[in-house]
Amino acid sequence: MEVGSRVVVPVAPADESHGEENGYRVVDVWHQRKIPDSFVWPLAHALPSSDMELDAPVVDIGAAMRGGGDALGRAVEQVAAACASHGLFQVTGHGVDPALARATLDGAAEFFLLPLATKLRVRRTPGTVTGYAVAHADRFAENLPWKETLSFGHRDDHPTANSDVVDYFASSLGSDFKPLGEVFQDYCQSMKEVSLAIMEVLGQSLGVGRSYCRDFFTDGCCTMRCNYYPPCPEPDRTLGTGPHCDPAALTLLLQDDAVDGLQVLVDGEWRPVRPKPGALVVNIGDTFTALSNGRYKSCLHRAVVHRERERRSLAFFLCPRDDRVVRPPPRLTQAQPRRYPDFTWADLKRFTQCHYRADTRTLDAFARWLGDGPSTSPGAGN
């Protein structure tokens, strides 16, 4: 099998050979001694990592759901403290089959090893969130992340909910990829169940009851993203993912146990979130920050890369239904004024895909954009 190390980027080093494939400029960028200038990040974003690991609680979500009482109360306390501080915690007892988690990570690894021509069959269309992409080079020309991604959607309320991911892989890549689609289908369905259980704890922690947040997202949209971070010759000059907050409501991340890379900014330091076997990393996104009326923080995070080690992760994003209006429940607006205007997930998704690069200021920029009207296009963030 040909290893898919050739990628499409806007610029190439002067000493590098490149050609054309499927009408796109092809560059073997991952195997260079120096990284292209377009991958170099400003020092302010690429600050050194702290040696101190992030103090994030590990919540037994299974015990909280089964036992209620003290177990639920403990989970509520842990989640509330983390979300008010930095917006990240980890969950165990989630019930996801370890064999399924391993098969999904392995399936993602197999995809990124495919020849470029095969991966380009599912190339991301500009303005959308699904498909294969390299370093966001289809959208940006600088501050490029050192990674490849594959993203696809899943919706429980869709008529083909039990096969939508399978159908995507089979129709886009061919029938030979149906088994891979089945693995991803099962994983997405498992992640949706876990995310709704977490929503029960979040709702209880906000004082709106266990069912409020679960019901809000039951028929929501989900996006799955497979991340591949190749070894990098100059890891101190680039990032796997730049500092940002996720536009989604909730992100569930499965890290490969062998390699760390996720970091969260706390007290001016980038603190690592090291993989814990069997645990899922959960972070709050901008949509849930708005739904909580700013009570819970959208997690500011980044991913670093390594000189000799490659890294993989699986990110599952939970979002509301496209047309659902995001506004905090009345209970959360009694003590303090509204922080953000009403919006739909479709509006925020369009904003981040077509008008603004997700960063540390996305939600505030989006609120201003809504006030100015959809015809206004603010400058892209870093």
Describe this structure in words.
Keywords: Iron, Metal-binding, Oxidoreductase. It holds the Pfam family 2OG-FeII_Oxy. It comes from Eragrostis curvula. The structure is a single chain. The relative contact order is 0.15. The chain has helices spanning 61-67, 69-85, 98-112, 116-119, 164-173, 178-206, 210-217, 286-291, 345-355, 362-372, and strands spanning 18-21, 24-27, 58-60, 88-92, 131-134, 148-155, 221-229, 241-244, 250-255, 262-266, 269-272, 280-284, 301-303, 311-319, 325-326, 343-344. It is α+β, with helices and mostly antiparallel strands. Helix 1 (61-67) packs across helix 2, helix 5 (164-173) packs antiparallel against helix 6 (178-206) and helix 6 packs antiparallel against helix 7. 31% of the residues lie in helices and 20% in strands. The two termini are 37 Å apart. Strand 10 (262-266) and strand 11 form a beta hairpin. The chain is globular. The chain has a single domain, classed as B-lactam Antibiotic, Isopenicillin N Synthase, Chain (Jelly Rolls, Sandwich). The strands form four sheets. The protein has an eight-stranded mixed sheet with strand order 3-4-12-9-14-7-6-5. Strands 8-13-10-11 form a four-stranded antiparallel sheet, with no helix packed on it.
